[in-house]
């Protein structure tokens, strides 16, 4: 039988919350260790319960996770499945996140609006690690993929390695699509 949060020992709750918060944010032990200035082996043993959790670890771990010490010490809040993140606009793209940050293999889904003004590709075309998946809902998408110049119609999907030089924009009007991007694609398409 599962113990209630109030009956759960504090050290067990903090270890569980540490793992939950790290996973929700898609962070590795290495990233948290660096942010908290704690040796990765120490952090791993803390999270696994193989090392005693000291009070002086709490502020650094909470800061590394972007939460207060109270949130690290407290019970898990009830999960809200709604994705409530403001859209981001960059270089003629407006993206509405459709997934939470968390364990999705680093992949995140977006609804994307491409402005008709995004009609001229950069030189050179960007290349980055990963894959992009795009599904056109409305409008005509221009996709430059290496030497190919493709027009993707509503109802069509494309999947491609982003090691190939690529760019996407519009053909005579705005485009609405669903995109699945990895962290490298997010970096390029959301921040340039």
Automatic annotation (TrEMBL):
What protein does this entry describe? Answer: Transcriptional regulator, Cro-CI family, putative
The cross-references to InterPro entries, in alphabetical order and at most eight, read: Cro/C1-type_HTH (IPR001387), Cupin_2 (IPR013096), Lambda_DNA-bd_dom_sf (IPR010982), RmlC-like_jellyroll (IPR014710), RmlC_Cupin_sf (IPR011051), TransReg_Diox_bact_type (IPR050807)
Q: Which GO CC terms are listed, alphabetically?
A: cytosol
Question: What positions does the domain HTH cro/C1-type occupy?
Answer: 18-72
User: What's in the keyword line of the UniProt record?
Assistant: DNA-binding
Source species, domain of life: Bacteria
The keyword Nucleotide-binding is annotated on this UniProt entry = no
GO MF annotations for this entry?
A: DNA binding; DNA-binding transcription factor activity
What is one Pfam family matched by this protein? Cupin_2
Q: Is the keyword Hydrolase in the record?
A: no
């Amino acid at each position: 039988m599962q113990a209630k949060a109030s009956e759960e020992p504090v050290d067990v709750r903090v270890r569980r919350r540490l793992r939950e918060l790290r996973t929700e944010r898609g962070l590795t032990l290495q990233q948290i260790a660096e942010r908290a200035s704690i040796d990765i082996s120490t952090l791993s043993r803390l999270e696994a319960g193989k090392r005693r959790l000291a009070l002086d670890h709490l502020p650094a771990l909470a800061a590394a996770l972007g939460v207060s010490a109270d949130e690290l010490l407290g019970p898990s809040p009830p999960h809200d499945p709604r994705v409530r993140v403001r859209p981001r606009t960059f270089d003629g793209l407006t993206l509405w996140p459709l997934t939470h940050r968390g364990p999705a293999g680093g992949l995140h889904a977006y609804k994307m609006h491409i402005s008709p003004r995004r009609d001229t590709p950069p030189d050179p075309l960007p290349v980055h690690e990963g894959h992009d998946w795009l599904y056109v809902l409305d409008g005509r998408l221009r996709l430059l993929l290496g030497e190919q110049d493709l027009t993707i119609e509503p109802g069509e999907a494309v999947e491609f390695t982003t090691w190939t030089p690529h760019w996407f924009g519009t053909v005579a009007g705005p485009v609405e699509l669903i995109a699945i991007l990895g962290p490298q694609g997010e970096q390029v398409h959301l921040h340039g």
